[in-house]
Structures are given as C-alpha cells and as structure tokens.
Specification:
heterodimer; A: alpha/beta; 2 domains; 12 helices; 12 strands; disordered N terminus; B: alpha/beta; Rossmann fold; 7-stranded mixed beta sheet; 6-stranded mixed beta sheet; 20 helices
C-alpha cells in the first residue's frame, strides 16, 4: 500500500529547480518564504541558519525532511524551513513525530522544542521517544527560561532565579537535560551552543546521520528574558577556560593550552585536574561508543550549571540493534501482500455458519 | 426418553466467581448456539476488580445469552435460567429473575463459609426463600471431579477447574446444542497440555451425560434455527471485533496503511489487543505512554499519509481533547473511538453509559466542530468504523466514533460481507504542484476539504499548525480571515453527506421514539412489544449525530410527541431541542446498565 518516493536531488519547491540554479542543494533551498519573527539577537537565528546549511550539505531533498514542533518560541521553527512541517500542541511534538517517523521510514524527521515544551509539559513524551529509539532528531533549545509567555522559570532555571512567577527566587532544582536523556536510554546524546556555529554544525550533522533517536541540547541565549545565561561559555575571555570540547578518542581537556583535564578521582568521581599535576596519561579518553552510559552520565553532571567548565559535543552515540526495525520490515511486507482476498479470509476467520 | 419442549426464545445467565470460568462457558455456549443458526445476543458482566476475594458478591462474573428462533434485538431482560456456581452468584442475580424461572445451582459451593461470604444468614436452598423458582441442585464440583479423578496426570486443580466444562456440557444437553463445536475448541485450546485436554473433554461429556441420566431434570428444550435471518454466511462478533474488522477493511479499501495507537483503558483496551493480533496481517499498533501521546502519534501518522486511529474511553478522551482540536485546525483525517463507560472521573469502568455525547460534540475550546458517528449494535460497529474512516478521509477531519462498553462486549451474529463489495475510499492525495503560483494548503474543494499531501511529494512541501492560518498556509491573526476560516470549518462538517434518517412508523402514529448508539436493540424490542399490544408508534435511530441526517428536523417535526431514550441524563434530547426548537421529551437511564426492552415498553406505554 505504500507509495514509492523518488530519492535524490530532484523535487523541492518550486519543483525540480534549485534556488542557486545548479543541481546542488544550497541553504536557500531550505529557507521558506515566511518572515522569521524571533526577537533581534535571539539564538534561534543561528540555529536556524546552521541547520539549513547542514541539511543542504547533507544533500537530502527538502521534501524528504519534516520538522515537528510544539509551543514556545522554538515552536515557530518549522514555519521557517522549506520542508514539510507541523506546529503542534504544547509538549507533544516527540509523540507526533513518533507517528510520522514510524510510518514513514523514508523521511528525515526533526523535532524542535524549548526547555519548557520538552522538559516541562512534554517531558514524558521526550523520555518515551528516546526509550523507543524512534528515528527522529530532537533538538532542545535550552535558554533556561520561558520566553513566549514572557519570562517565567523553566525546568532548567537555576535555584534562586527571580522571575515574575518566582519573585522571591526559584526553589526548584533544575533538570540536567543530558542526564535525563541518558537515563531514558537515549542512543545519541549531545550538547552544543548557539554562539559556536562550527561546533553547532558538527553536532547537528552527527545527529542527522544517527539511525535511532538523537538528542541534542543547544545552549541558546534569550536576549530578552535571560540574557547572558551562557556568558561563561561564550565570552571571549572565559570561554576557552570553560568549554570542554568532547572528541571521541581524545583525552578530555580544556583551556587555551589544554592545561586542565578530566580524570577519575580516588572514589571514581570525575574531577577536573591540572594536567601539569597529574600528567596527560591520567586524563580520561572520551569514548562516545561505550555501551554503558554511566560515564556519559557522569560527564553530563560534571558542571552544576553553564557557569563553570562544561562539556559540549557528542556524549554518547551507540548503535542499538533495534527489535522494532526488524518487526517493522516484516509488517511492511505483510501490508504489501494484504488485499481483498486476504481481507475476505480475515472476515471469515473462526466459526461460521450459513443461512439459506 | 426425556421429553423435548420447543421454545421460541430463551435467556440464560451463567454466574459464578471470577475464577469459575463463566465467561468461557458463556462464550462457548454462544458459539454452539450461533453455529446452530439461532439469532442471539450476549452480554458479559465483569466485576470491577481483577481478583476480588473469592466467593464474595464483588467477585461475581456473569454472562447472559438470549437466543431465539426468530430475529431478536437485545441480550434479554430477565433470564429464564440462572446458573449460579456459588451463593454470591445466586445472591447477586436472583433479584433479576421472574418468579417461575429455573435456577441451577452448584450445591457443592453452598458451604457455611461461602454463604457467609455472600452475606446469607441462612442457606437459601433450605430456607424456602427460593420457593417461587424451579431450583435444580447439582453437585457440579464433585461430579466434575469424579469424572476426571481417575485420569493420568490430572491435578486436583485441573479437576476442580473443569467444573465449568461440566456446566457447559449440562447446558448444551438441556438446550440441545451441538457438541462438536465445543469439543473442537477444547482440543485446540489444550492441544499442548494433553492432561488438561482430557480432563476438560471428560468433564464436558460428563455434564452432558448427567443431563441425559439424572431424574432431577426431566425436560429438554429445543430452540430451532432462526428462519427470518437473511441468507448468507454468518459469524458471531462483539462490537470490538466488528470495529477492528471494519478498520482493517477501510484500510484495504482505501489503500491507506493503518496505525492504531492507544493507551490501555477499560473497556477500549480490547480494541488494541485485537488489532495487535493482526500486526502480521498488515496493520500496525503501538501502545503509547498515555492518551495524549496516543492521539498525537495517530495524528502524526495521518500527516504522513496513513490512516491514524486511536481508541479510548471517557477519561482518555478527556486527555485527547486538546489534540482533537489540533486535528480540527490541521484538517487531517483521524478516527478517535470512544468506548464510553460510566463517569464522571474514573466512574464505573466496567459499566456502560452514553454520557460522552456532549463532550464529543463540544468538549474543546474555540469553535472546533467534529463529526460524530455512533455505532448502534455490536455487528453494526463494522459499518460504523468504515463510515468514520470514509468521513475522515473524504473531508480531511477528525471523526469521533462513539461506542460503549455494552457494544464492545456484547455479541450477535454478523452476516459477513464480501470484501470486494465493500465501498472503496479514495484518499485523493494531492500529488502535483499547482501550475501557477505556490501550493496553498487551505484551498478547499467543493466539499470544503483541503488537500492531503504525503510528505516526500516534490513541490508541495508546506507547513501547517495549530495557529490560525490563511488559505495560503501563512499564520494569520487577521479578523476577517479568522471569521472565514471558522465558517469554512463549520460548513465543511455541517455539509458532510450522511444518509437520511429512516423512520419505522405505523400509519397514524403520534409518538416518535428516537434513540442513538447501543440503545438500538432495546428500543427495537420495546417498540415491537408496544406494537404487539396494539399501539401505534414511530421509531427512528440516529447513527450520525454531527451532522444530523439532512431530514432529521423534518422527521421530528412530523410527530406531535417526540421521546428520546438514552443512557445519560438527556444529552441527545438537549441537542435536538437546541437544534430544532422542538418540545422533546426525555427518558433517561444512568445506572451503568444497558436499557431493557421492558423499560422502553413501560416508557412508551406511559405516553400512548
């Protein structure tokens, strides 16, 4: 019953023609005609532009890509992509995308949402989409605040945060989104930051090619309601001391001269140490493919918040033999062979009798 | 040789403890009855608890079957025969019997302890309280045990459990039911456990032979095959199976892949179970993390070009209302099945009701019209499911299919249609980009439906969402646009083609009785009884609530009195009054129990 869709570099809008006139896809092929309406200086602009570039680079035709979002500033994202898109209800994008991705293996499905959308009202769906390893790419725009409703605390706001809904300071401990994703058995977990376009692009690229559910947290600055939340990681004079760039197979270290690094402490905890004290050999070598997620979990909790040395990059990327995939293939084959004759058989199943 | 009396119809109720296997006995007796060619209707009744304490009233499970030599409409009112496997089963059911009814009791279970648990001060078999009934005391447990005790490898547990097969054997003898159907079933069911197979077969035959030899029961009854059923091949279906088959048929006849995504909830879980069994026949199911996810996953599948379906009951339907509103805005095909149960809140999960009608109609914020199809009988759920899909696909809209616990669990014979004769449903996907200008997702066809595009189609990439849109698909807060879009969504639903309302009317009838949903059977039977008493009456049943059939107002206006009978506090009556400004009377029943023909008869006679 399924319809074959032509793969490759044909199609798009307008049909057949590429925005730059050549056969290759460009960023413009992924830009919709809708006017982008985020606040000036919003980190979302950088993410939008970078993802458009990544998709063009990847070469998948725009009509083979779908974006699904919920409610919040980030929820507008699909409108700005010249792909298929749905702007759904608050928090439910991972569920909606699950239905789409499960029935349309031929599409590349992305989910976009903020920390309120995906960690508060929709946290349950996020966890289950990750647990099921549905082939969707989830990008969490984490700005640690509610933007669209004008500045209330989010599940990632720090304790003591003063907002209109918490005039005496927030009392609640924030989520660590990556810890949450790892606890939900996610097979791909990464973090990046809006101000570092190159890093952002590399992480989104890695997510795009992951066969299962990919979870990417993007530290995204809200210039209106929470400006500077990530200043320690983006300001010229502090970022090199604080951005721990994870690279698979390389020792985990930080600093302009890579002078500090992550190692196991005496009781097994991960600690930051001066390389001059412990020697480079003592540093932990990052292994994103470790089957056991415990070390990635420990890394996700190295910093209490983005104000101190914080790892970014791909924390975990494992291939999981998917029981679902085999089952889906069998089911697809069964569907192909199920027509009127098979329906007649099904209607007559069990004990029957004839009258007249 | 015992004498055989002929009966036109009989109502039997099997009642016992949850662990006594009464649903199995009822189900097997039903199959034997169906194969014999009787018309029939059944009604299982489960306890609210999974395993209530054994022997208590709370733990009583029952199964009623009405079978007849003619067309019948309901599972029957008062049973002619009650089988009571223990004192609690007797106590829970005896009040519903008419004097003169037969009670077959398992006398082995009438111990002091069991009498205590059922709340009997004295043994009702001894104290004369059952004098008005014909009581047959059969030591069922010990007779069944005796029948199997000598067999190799049969445990005491298997021996005790086989008492339900003994009971089945006895009842099959009493009503002259074929034995081969049951023996075949036992052989298949216990094919891998030969000791259990032998024990159950032996107990079943012992029950039959006991009837043949005992002096306790001297009369057998025969209910001949029904002569007035239309010719064809039949099978027995409950509303759950009929719905599942209808959805699969709609999938085949539309060429759309089917995804049913649900979250377990009584009494809708069975829909998920039955559909999941067909996963190797080309359908797909998913058990979601909650009802909100279930409807979103189904809607996501619909966006992808599949047939998205979700099934739930009242509390789950509450949770789905937000996304149902999204589906109204997205204008995508979606079928939401609400198997209604008694509310509010958790209410009575194992009791039936029709009280979600106004929620289906109005239970969303904003102006968000949703078509409503209501299934009327267990077998009719097949057509109702196909019709819900037809409307969803043709008009690109979510559709609520209202069923209820009674329909889901009751069964009746179903004349199996020929698959190739079933209506086709054309998905009519948009596949070509417009020749001039960009693709506009909210441009409508003559029926008011917008284009449905499978993602992946070149040149038609577009974005839709819950925010109000202009025709071109752009977000729009413009006042005039909102008014137009609101009116167009409403007009689309109002203009859905549904068949005219048929009226079964006596010449000169002044009273029209109107029903909807599962009360169809009780209304049909009640109307028949009133006619048998020489009264004139008209009867109409609504299978479509939104939109109403085009002639509904005209039909209702034709009669000087209109009575709506339903299992809620008068929700349809309220809708019809509002729609037609007519003085409509309401007969409402909100007890969690199906309507009875006798109640309908009474309500009608009071007005005739």
């Amino acid at each position: 019953m399924s319809v074959n869709v032509t793969n490759g570099r044909v199609g798009g809008s307008p049909a057949g023609a590429r925005a730059n006139g050549s056969g290759a896809l460009g960023k413009a092929d992924f830009q919709s005609s809708s006017e982008t309406r985020w606040c000036p200086g919003c980190g979302d602009y950088a993410i939008l532009a970078t993802l458009q570039e990544v998709l063009a680079e990847q070469g998948t035709a725009p009509e083979r890509v779908a974006f699904v979002s919920g409610i919040g500033c980030a929820g507008r994202f699909p409108y700005y992509m010249n792909t298929y898109g749905v702007h759904g209800v608050h928090g439910r994008a991972p569920a909606f995308a699950t239905g789409l991705a499960l029935t349309r293996e031929d599409l590349q499905v992305w989910v976009i949402g903020g920390d309120g959308d995906m960690l508060s009202i929709g946290a349950n769906h996020l966890l289950h989409a990750l647990r099921r390893d549905i082939p969707i790419k989830i990008v969490l725009f984490n700005n640690q605040i509610y933007g669209l409703t004008k500045g209330q605390i989010s599940p990632t706001s720090e304790v003591g945060k003063i907002t209109k809904s918490t005039p005496f300071g927030s009392l609640d401990i924030p989520f660590q989104p990556l810890s949450l994703a790892l606890g939900a058995e996610a097979s791909f977990v990464a973090r990046t930051i809006d101000r570092d376009r190159k890093h952002l692009a590399s992480v989104l690229q890695a997510a795009a090619t992951h066969p299962g559910a990919a979870f990417v947290e993007v530290y995204q600055n809200c210039p209106v309601f929470n400006d500077g939340a990530y200043a320690a990681l983006t300001d010229k004079d502090s970022r090199e001391a604080n951005l721990i760039r994870l690279e698979h197979g390389a020792p985990i270290c930080v600093g302009r001269e890579r002078e500090r690094g992550v190692m196991r402490g005496p009781d097994g905890d991960l600690v930051l140490a001066d390389v001059s004290d412990v020697g480079e050999g003592a540093l932990l070598v990052h292994d994103a493919h470790r089957p056991d997620p415990s070390l990635a979990f420990a890394l996700s909790r190295l910093a209490a918040g983005p104000t101190e040395p914080t790892p970014v990059g791909v924390f975990r990327k494992v291939a999981r033999p998917s029981a679902r995939l085999g089952f889906e293939r069998e089911a697809a084959a069964a569907r192909e062979g199920f027509g009127v004759r098979e329906l007649d058989e099904l209607l007559h199943a069990g004990d029957t009798w004839t009258v007249g | 040789m015992k004498q055989i009396h002929e009966r036109e119809q009989v109502v039997v109720r099997f009642a016992g403890d949850s662990g006594d296997g009464m649903q199995v006995v009822g189900g097997r007796f039903t199959e034997a009855t169906a194969v014999l060619g009787n018309d029939l209707a059944t009604l299982p009744n489960f306890p609210g608890e999974i395993r209530a304490p054994a022997g208590t009233i709370a733990g009583v499970s029952s199964f009623q079957i009405h079978f007849a030599a003619r067309d019948i409409a309901t599972p029957g009112d008062a049973p002619n025969v009650l089988v009571a496997m223990n004192p609690a089963a007797l106590r829970a059911n005896v009040d519903e019997l008419d004097r003169g009814a037969t009670i077959i009791v398992n006398e082995d279970a009438f111990s002091t302890r069991n009498l205590d648990k059922a709340g009997y001060q004295a043994n009702p078999l001894e104290d004369g309280s059952l004098d008005g009934f014909s009581v047959k005391r059969v030591p069922i447990t010990s007779l069944a045990q005796r029948a199997v005790q000598e067999m190799d490898g049969v445990s005491t547990r298997d021996a005790i459990r086989s008492k339900n097969m003994f009971t089945l054997g006895l009842l099959c003898w009493l009503y002259d039911r074929p034995v081969d159907v049951t023996e075949r079933w036992i052989s298949a069911k216990f094919a891998k456990r030969s000791s259990a197979l032998q024990a159950n077969l032996a107990a079943f035959r012992a029950g039959w032979n006991f009837g043949e030899t005992t002096e306790l029961i001297d009369t057998r009854y025969r209910v001949p095959a029904a002569a007035d059923l239309p010719a064809g091949t039949y099978r027995n279906v409950n509303g759950t199976i009929a719905t599942v088959l209808g959805l699969v048929a709609a999938s085949v006849r539309s060429g759309l892949d089917l995804l049913l995504c649900s979250y377990p909830i009584t009494p809708a879980s069975e829909l998920l179970h039955e559909m999941a069994r067909l996963e190797r026949s080309g359908v797909r199911t998913l058990q979601a993390e909650d009802e909100i996810a279930a409807i979103n996953i189904a809607l996501g599948a619909a966006f992808g070009g599949s047939l998205g379906v979700t099934a739930t009951s009242g509390p789950g339907a509450d949770l789905m209302s937000e996304t149902l509103g999204l589906a109204v805005a997205l204008e995508l095909p979606l079928v939401v099945i609400d198997v209604q149960r008694a509310g509010p809140s958790t209410g009575m999960p194992t009791r039936t009701e029709q009280s979600d009608l106004l929620m289906a109609m109005y239970g969303r914020h904003g102006e968000s019209p949703v078509p409503i199809v209501a299934a009327s009988t267990p077998a009719q759920c097949f057509e109702a499911a196909i019709d819900a899909v037809r409307i969803a696909v043709r008009y690109r809209t979510p559709v609520v299919l209202l069923e209820d616990l009674f329909l889901a669990n009751s069964s009746e014979p179903w004349r199996i249609p020929v698959a190739g004769d079933l209506p086709t449903i054309e998905p009519m996907f948009e596949t070509e980009p417009p020749k001039d200008g960009p693709f506009e997702p909210y441009v409508r066809d003559a029926s008011g439906a917008r284009p449905w595009v499978r993602p992946g189609t070149p040149g038609l990439a577009h974005r839709i969402g819950g925010l109000e849109k202009s025709r071109s698909g752009e977000i729009s807060y413009e006042a005039g646009n909102h008014a137009v879009m609101t009116a167009e969504r409403a007009a689309k639903v109002a203009g859905i083609e549904v068949p005219p309302l048929a009226v079964d009317a006596d010449e000169g009838a002044e009273l029209l009785v109107v029903g909807w949903g599962s009360s169809h059977g009780a209304l049909r039977a009640g109307v028949r009884r009133v006619r048998a008493r020489g009264k004139r009456i008209a009867f109409a049943h609504l299978d479509h609530i939104n939109p109403l059939p085009p002639n509904a107002g005209e039909v209702l206006g034709r009669y000087s009195r209109v009575l709506v009978v339903e299992m809620n506090s008068g929700q349809l009556a309220r809708l019809l009054r509002a729609e037609f400004a007519l003085d409509i009377e309401s007969h409402a029943k909100v007890q969690g129990q199906p309507l009875l023909a006798a109640e309908v008869e009474r309500a009608l006679m009071e007005r005739l």
